[in-house]
Design goal:
- The complex is a heterodimer of chains A (291) and B (280).
- Chain A has 291 residues and is of the alpha/beta class.
- Chain A has eleven helices and eleven strands.
- In chain A, the strands form two sheets. In chain A, strands 1-2-3-5-6-7-8-11 form an eight-stranded parallel β-barrel, surrounded by seven helices. A two-stranded parallel sheet of chain A has the order 9-10.
- In chain A, helix 7 links the parallel strand 7 and strand 8.
- The N and C termini of chain A lie close together (7 Å).
- The mean pLDDT of chain A is 95.
- Chain B has an eight-stranded parallel beta barrel, surrounded by six helices. Chain B has a two-stranded parallel sheet with strand order 9-10.
- With 280 residues, chain B is α/β, with parallel strands linked by helices.
- Chain B contains eleven helices and eleven strands.
- In chain B, 46% of the residues lie in helices and 18% in strands.
- The longest helix of chain B has 18 residues.
- In chain B, helix 3 crosses helix 5.
- Classes of the chains: A alpha/beta (291), B alpha/beta (280).
Chain lengths: 291, 280
């Protein structure tokens, strides 16, 4: 544990059993707190992947980051969730989102519902899970009566309102507002701050952990150069100055990044970062730095 | 004649420790296959099979059987290919069309007509065949009772599973097909197979190992009131008697019906063990 912070790795690459096992152990050895499985077609199925991750690690929490809720029937999902919760000894943290990749709905032979319908389904899913957790007849029973911790991720007002009402962990995407189904682009710091303030107002004092998916990590002694490279990589979506400010880009030496994390906690209340699998090894010294 | 295989269909959800212990016990008792059912209120099949394989060394793990209507074909295929990989190729896939109407209603899934349920099963099987087009597919078991289902199984499955039930089985009582009706279904499949070699599986619904066969049959008859004690005595889905007599019965079933793979339900896990010993 790194005191006030938590760090997770989002695993996205489909793997052989051996590679998956090895990678899960590395996540834990590097000092991460959470091992997350994404939910996309062409990747490993999240629940069995997390059960296996739980078998080969000791400590890390196991998280779906995030389930595409419209893919699932809520009642069958509840069985999968509580079953996995039991089989991992209560290490599951359930992450849900409304879904956004249109092509995947098509590939799954499902109509791509409107944004409103997707959030409706997300809401039904949350309510159904809460109802079934609380039902003493529901089997498998969750490990804790209230069920596993819930992370809700998203950007829009409705999803974040739901998150403020129901979630233990709010997952900010750090992306800018974009047309439904379009490619995602990183948001500027003011934009992220606005979303955070929106949630804070909705929370009305209730405590929730704030999580952010960190899109860019570059641990380097040349922060200025790396930020300039990143500005090129993101094709001008954000300027160098803007990139220097956003919590979705952690760039610099381990000490510099640790400092940024403290500043972001002050400004945005972010204490839990999820980084992409490809950045896991280079991020490890930052965790060391914060111990 | 194919070698015997013995499977158990585990149903009860529980903690990790309970589940691990149960799977290991099945392996220790000599079973070849650890299966999970797909019903609401029961164990979550996909995570359960992952853990079953982790907890054991040798047994195959199988869905026995998935309710095709409960699953999106593409997502199910992802689950199964993932399980196949993560269990090191120990997965077998069992699929049925679903038969418990109350569960469909509880999950908000349209019950539909038998034709619609069959269409969903076909879609799931087609998708599994598609994702395994260019690599070896895990053995596929298809189970059911009706003509259409068994014809499809004869065409696509490595293992054809007979439920051994009569119509009305889903209503909560043990509605077993009589010996003649069961033999007729097996004959139907053999004709449909038209010489193709497939493994035949049978669900054994009741196991009582006892020296007092008469009393055990009477007890069984009280559960299956529509069949006479005499019919029960010759029914392959009811295994009652001494371990030696039970072993002989299974041998006879293999000779007469060609069924070589027997699956018991969880509560009979321990009861069948001495019979398995005798048949090794």
């Amino acid at each position: 544990m790194t005191g006030e912070f938590r760090f997770g790795v989002n695993m996205v690459v489909p793997d052989s059993r051996a590679a998956w096992v090895e990678k899960c152990r590395r996540v834990e050895d590097f000092g991460f707190d959470v091992l997350s499985a994404a939910d996309h077609l062409g990747m490993a199925p999240p629940f069995p992947a997390l059960v296996l991750a739980g078998e080969v690690t000791e400590r890390v929490k196991l998280n779906t980051f995030v389930l595409n809720a419209p893919f699932y029937n809520p009642v069958l999902l509840a069985r999968e969730v509580t079953g996995t919760d039991q089989f991992t000894g209560g290490r599951l943290e359930l992450g849900l989102g409304a879904g956004y990749v249109k092509e995947e709905f098509e590939a799954a032979g499902m109509p791509f519902p409107s944004a409103r319908e997707r959030v409706d389904h997300l809401e039904r899913t949350i309510l159904e899970l809460e109802r079934l957790y609380a039902d003493p007849e529901h089997k498998p029973a969750p490990v804790r009566p209230e069920g596993p911790p819930l992370l809700l991720g998203g950007r829009g007002d409705r999803v974040l309102t739901l998150a403020a009402e129901h979630a233990d962990i709010i997952g900010f995407t750090g992306t800018a507002k974009s047309p439904d189904g379009a490619a995602l682009v990183p948001a500027g710091a003011e934009d992220i701050e606005e979303r955070v303030e929106f949630v804070r107002a909705k929370l009305g004092g209730r405590h929730a952990e704030f999580n952010l998916l960190c899109h860019f990590v570059n641990i380097t002694e040349d922060r200025a150069g790396a930020l300039a490279d990143l500005a090129k990589l993101t094709q001008g979506a954000l300027s160098v100055d803007q990139l220097a400010e956003v919590p979705t880009a952690l760039v610099g030496s381990p000490a510099e990044v640790a400092e940024q994390l403290h500043a972001h906690r002050e400004r945005f209340g972010l204490t839990y970062y999820t980084i992409l699998e490809q950045n896991m090894a280079q991020f490890a010294p930052v965790i060391e730095e914060l111990r | 004649m194919r070698p015997f295989r013995f499977g158990v269909a585990l149903v009860a959800p529980g903690s990790r420790a309970e589940w691990v212990a149960k799977c290991r016990r099945a392996e220790d008792l000599g079973y070849d296959v650890v299966g999970v059912v797909d019903h609401l209120g029961r164990v979550a099949p996909v995570p359960a099979l992952l853990l079953a394989a982790e907890a054991t060394e040798r047994v195959k793990v199988t869905t026995y059987v998935l309710n095709a209507s409960f699953h999106n074909a593409v997502l199910l295929a992802r689950d199964l290919t993932g399980l196949d990989e993560f269990t090191g190729g120990r997965l077998e896939i069992g699929i049925g069309a679903g038969y418990v109407r109350a569960e469909f209603e509880a999950a908000g899934i349209e019950w539909g007509t038998p034709g619609q349920r069959f269409a969903r099963l076909k879609r799931v099987v087609t998708e599994i065949e598609r994702v395994y087009e260019s690599r070896p597919r895990p053995p596929l078991l298809l189970g059911g009772r009706g003509d259409r289902m068994l014809e499809f199984a004869a065409e696509h499955a490595d293992t054809i599973a007979f439920t051994g039930t009569a119509p009305g089985a889903a209503e909560g009582r043990l509605a077993l097909a009589g010996p003649t009706a069961l033999a007729e279904r097996v004959d139907f499949v053999k004709r449909a197979l038209d010489g193709r070699d497939a493994e035949l599986n049978l669900m054994v619904h009741l196991v009582r190992i006892t020296d007092d066969r008469r009393a055990a049959l009477d007890e069984a008859q009280s559960l299956v009131s529509h069949l006479s004690t005499e019919e029960l005595g010759e029914l392959p889905t009811v295994v009652v008697g001494s371990a030696a007599a039970a072993a002989e019965q299974l041998q006879r079933t293999r000779e007469t019906l060609g069924v070589s793979y027997f699956t018991v339900i969880e509560e009979d896990l321990t009861r069948l063990a001495p019979v398995i010993q005798k048949l090794r």
